[in-house]
Design brief:
This protein folds into two domains: 137 residues, NAD(P)-binding Rossmann-like Domain (Rossmann fold); 272 residues, Dihydrodipicolinate Reductase, domain 2 (2-Layer Sandwich). The chain is 36% helix and 19% strand. It is built from 14 helices and 15 strands. The radius of gyration is 24 Å and the shape is globular. The two termini are 28 Å apart. The structure holds NADP nicotinamide-adenine-dinucleotide phosphate. The site of NADP nicotinamide-adenine-dinucleotide phosphate (NAP) has 23 residues, from helix 1. One of its GO terms (cellular component) is cytosol.
Length: 483
């Protein structure tokens, strides 16, 4: 396949937290892969910044190790690694102090894009934004990339938005949600708005319900302290699942332009009904054999934080009135499986009689693993013996359809390149984030005021029994969580 990589202008990208976990696992290996794909022009430079005192040579060694560990197949080309490392520099900087800022300013070049990636704890976002201005590092070409979590609730998100707005215009702020960088998520928009086939059916008249599942097999791991203050609702639903819901439910924007898309997403969040307590299930994974349960993982035997949430939500608008959206996400589930399933209604009348069974078209959009789409279509089962119907998938796995060269860039790679290009379409606007918190805050407050205790579930299961009942009550069922 012919490479369609679009080169970008030369840039200076400063990664605050350049020695941290996210930088090592995602940002730096991602930049390296973009470099290998020819997307980093000669003048492009990456500057790591953190408190640790080290020189550029030492930093290059750590970046080389990170690429070796997390860079994937492309990391085997040592010449490419060396060439990439020549573009990498390091400057020790204290986000809360004065040290290192003048030197960092001295490293930046005039007349080209400057991107500052805040890959540090959220408590440092304001300090860094302020110093970028006060030390004269930011100019009209500058942009900042802000990692999740973006606030802990509506009040903190508003305060963070206000702090950033003191130093940067909204057009310069890139709030990252890596789910939006996934190839399939963008393909969702291509499928909806690039084909005549789907959009006329994309409403409550033809769609029975929509399921969004983001299932993980891992527990809270080393993030116990952070996670226990957050829980699945804040960590996953408020951002990733809400963003997926927005893309699946939004009206067609007038053009594929950042504000046109984000205006439509915002309308979806604002159309969400307040959620009924009975339509919500919280869960917490228990121990299994020698494997610790959630409470052991976070070191609090009385923790009431949820590691699983399932819910039924409604959108009050013309398109979706009467079609529910079922959302679920959790840790230590049966498989790592993220999927959006659009389940169409039955045909109005079956000419094949009841013995043909119930058959429905399902458009399943797989986010991970194996990004792709499947459309279940009902056909006649081949062979003699009358008209028996079966559902067969029209499979649109990208690797199969487009060939091995079509391997999609990792979400972080794509999003960082969008920052350099100045394209905010796949980044959350401040009002979107606030609207999402405004919807989730009352849910969390309700749990707290009632002293709600999450339902235990077995690791390796599909979550608590009550989550299955949430669907069964409506005569529906969750799709199987499978790898
Ligand atoms: P981390 O491993 O703890 O790294 C934090 C980084 O910040 C280190 O490079 C650290 O280096 C630097 N740092 C700390 N205090 C500093 C200061 N005062 N001035 C300058 N640098 C300072 O954290 P992380 O996991 O990479 O996460 C970074 C951000 O990404 C967080 O907001 C997190 O919520 C978000 N995030 C992470 C992941 C992930 O998979 N890790 C996923 C999604 C979002 P020094 O100690 O040398 O200063």
């Amino acid at each position: 396949m012919v490479s369609r990589v679009i080169p970008v202008e030369p840039f200076d990208l400063v990664i605050f937290g350049g020695t941290g976990d996210l930088a090592r696992r995602k940002i730096l290996p991602g930049l390296f892969r973009r470099f290998c794909d020819g997307q980093m022009p000669d003048g492009a430079r990456v500057i790591g910044a953190a408190r640790s005192e080290m020189d550029t040579a030492a930093y290059r060694v750590t970046v080389g190790e990170a690429i070796g560990e997390f860079g994937g197949d492309s990391a085997v080309d040592c010449d490419a690694v060396d060439a990439f490392l020549e573009r990498v520099e390091y400057q020790a900087v204290d986000a809360k102090g004065e040290g290192g800022w003048e030197a960092l300013r001295g490293l930046l070049r005039d007349g080209m894009v400057r991107a500052f990636y805040f890959s540090v704890a959220p408590s440092l976002f304001g300090d860094i934004a302020e110093r970028l201005r006060s030390f004269g590092l930011a100019d009209a070409q500058s942009r900042i990339v802000v990692e999740k979590p973006f606030g802990h609730d509506l009040a903190s998100a508003r305060s963070l938005n206000a702090t950033l707005a003191q130093h940067f215009d909204e057009e310069q702020i890139y709030r990252i949600d890596h789910y939006l960088g996934k190839e399939t998520v963008q393909n969702l928009m291509a499928v909806r708005f690039g084909n005549m086939l789907f959009e006329p059916l994309w409403n409550a008249q033809f769609i029975d319900h929509i399921q969004i599942t983001v299932a993980e097999t891992v527990g809270v791991g080393g993030r116990g302290e952070y996670y226990d203050k957050s829980g699945a609702m804040r960590d996953m639903v408020q951002n990733h699942l809400m963003q997926l819901l927005c893309l699946i439910a939004m009206e067609p924007p007038s053009k594929f332009d950042p504000d046109a898309v984000r205006d439509e997403k915002l309308k979806v969040i604002r159309a969400l009904d307040p959620i009924d307590y009975h339509q919500l299930v919280r869960g917490q994974y228990g121990p299994a054999g020698d494997a610790p349960g959630y409470r052991e993982d976070v070191g609090d035997a009385r923790s009431r934080t949820e590691s699983f949430v399932a819910m039924k939500v409604h959108l009050s608008n013309w398109r979706w009135a009467g079609t529910p959206f079922y959302l679920r996400t959790g840790k230590k589930l049966r498989a790592r499986d993220s999927e959006i399933a659009v389940v169409f209604k039955d045909t109005p009348h079956s000419i094949f009689g009841p013995e043909a069974g119930q058959h429905r078209n399902v458009l399943a959009i797989r986010l991970q693993p194996n990004e792709g789409m499947t459309l279940d279509v009902t056909i006649k089962e081949p062979g003699p013996g009358g008209m028996r119907l079966i559902d067969v998938p029209l499979d649109m796995s990208f690797a199969d359809a487009l060939g091995p060269d079509a391997e999609a860039p990792d979400a972080y790679e794509r999003l960082i390149m969008d920052v350099i290009r100045g394209n905010q379409t796949l980044f959350m606007r401040g009002d979107e984030v606030e609207a999402a918190w405004a919807w989730t805050d009352p849910i969390i407050e309700g749990w707290q005021s009632r002293g709600d205790v999450p339902k235990p579930y077995d690791p390796g299961s599909s979550g608590p029994e009550d989550a299955l009942m949430l669907m069964h009550r409506d005569g529906r069922r969750w799709r199987e969580i499978k790898a």
